[in-house]
């Protein structure tokens, strides 16, 4: 149990360190005059990153991280213009395709209700100290 707690703490420290490193690098590049796109440190990119981080920490199970990732991704794609091509026009179909693939490929949770109705013998031979 302790090794699991230490591994979790090390993962958090690694993620936090990388996050601080990236933010510091972006600020350094901006302050030295290098043109950094405006959408890199915007609220929607932070939302996208938070959604991906939550998904990573929960092994991409559940759907709370997915909502943050989709909303952040849509607004981030809307802010990105590559070669005067509006990436937002293709982002909605890409999100729908990705959502469909997620629904198709997600692991299925099979609940076996037989185990709840089985009678299990009680062991009275075990003595408590």
UniProtKB/TrEMBL annotation:
Protein keywords: Membrane, Transmembrane, Transmembrane helix
**InterPro entries given in the database record:** LiaF_TM
Q: Where are the transmembrane segments?
A: 12-30, 36-56, 63-81, 87-105
Give the LiaF transmembrane domain ranges. Answer: 16-109
Protein's recorded name: LiaF transmembrane domain-containing protein
What species was this sequence derived from? Pedobacter jeongneungensis
Read off the lineage from the record.
Answer: Bacteria, Pseudomonadati, Bacteroidota, Sphingobacteriia, Sphingobacteriales
């Amino acid at each position: 149990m302790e090794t699991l707690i230490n591994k979790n703490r090390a993962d958090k420290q690694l993620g936090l360190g990388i996050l601080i490193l990236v933010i510091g690098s972006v600020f350094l590049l901006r302050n030295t005059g290098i043109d950094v796109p405006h959408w890199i440190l915007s609220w929607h990119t932070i939302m996208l990153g938070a959604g991906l981080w939550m998904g990573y920490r929960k092994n991409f199970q559940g759907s709370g991280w997915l909502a943050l990732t989709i909303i952040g991704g849509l607004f981030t794609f809307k802010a990105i213009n590559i070669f005067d091509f509006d990436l937002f026009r293709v982002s909605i179909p890409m999100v729908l395709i990705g959502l469909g693939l997620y629904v198709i490929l997600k692991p299925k949770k099979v609940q076996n209700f037989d185990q709840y109705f089985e009678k299990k013998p009680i062991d009275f031979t075990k003595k408590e100290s």
